[in-house]
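Request: Show me your protein:
***
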Amino acid sequence: MSSEDKELEQIKAKIVSDIMNQSPNASGEVTVLKSDELQAFIDNNKNVIVDFYATWCPPCKIMDPITKDLAEIYKGKVAFGKINTDQERQAAIQYQIRYVPTFYLFKDGKVVGQFSGARKKKDFQELIDKQFKDEK
């Protein structure tokens, strides 16, 4: 095998690896989810953050622009979703949401972190960097 062939094989392997590790919904936007869409969203993305929120909640309103900014920062690496706990009671019950906003962080379909309440953008970013090492 020539050095050119070896280089092509390495490039192909890198492309396949990148595809396998992507989060297809990491579009830089926050996806609004229904209860019956939540599990597929988690399963189809390597790194996921789900915001359980309510429209009447002041801390949720504070976190909304922060979450949108972070979705853009982690575009291609972390999929951001949000689910309205008043409209989607099944998901709220499944994840035992007692306070809003509550954020769940998933890696490879498993919960790797969670928190409730408002946070500063830099604190949220530090948590993301810790849980999703080398994903930025």
In short: The chain has five helices and five strands. Strands lie at 30-32, 47-53, 79-84, 102-107, 110-116. The first strand starts at residue 30 and ends at 32. The helical segments are 3-20, 35-43, 58-73, 89-94, 121-131.
